Amino acid sequence: MKLGKVIPRISWLLFRGFWSRLFIKYVIKDFHPLVFFYALSFFLLTVSVPLGIRLCYVWAKYGDIPDINAMALVFTLVSGLQSLFFGMWFDMDYNKHLR
């Protein structure tokens, strides 16, 4: 088994299955707002990656970090993680009868 081939395929399969489960279970069958929390967290955490790269680049090049860049990075990271945790909490609460 070649890990370089297997890991991306399984990761993509898990990612696609997660979003498919969310869509079918929480949008089609019974609406629940946790889908918005997961989507917002995915968006904000994706946006924070280029902001973090820019922050490191500016810091390495000029030795100083612009305040607005640091605030944008912190806002996207904190909001993205908070949305992710709220979505996970709602998901666990919705499925507590399955224990």
Describe, in short, the structure shown.
The chain is mainly alpha-helical and 99 residues long. It has helices at residues 3-29, 34-62, 67-94. The longest helix has 29 residues, at 34-62.
Structure notes:
The protein is an all-alpha fold and 99 residues long. It has helices at residues 3-29, 34-62, 67-94. Helix 2 (34-62) runs antiparallel to helix 3 (67-94). 10% of the residues are buried. The mean pLDDT is 92.
Keywords:
single chain; 99 residues; mainly alpha; 3 helices; flat
Stretches with pLDDT under 50, minimum 5 residues:
none
Q: How many strand units?
A: 0
What is the mean predicted local confidence, pLDDT? 92
Category by helix and strand content: mainly alpha
Q: Count of helical segments?
A: 3
Counting copies of identical and different chains, the oligomeric state is single chain
Q: How much of the residues is beta strand, in percent?
A: under 5%
The coarse silhouette is: flat
Fraction of residues in H or I helices: over 70%
| Main sheet characteristics | none
The first-to-last residue Cα distance is 35 Å
Secondary-structure element order, N to C: HHH
Radius of gyration: 18 Å
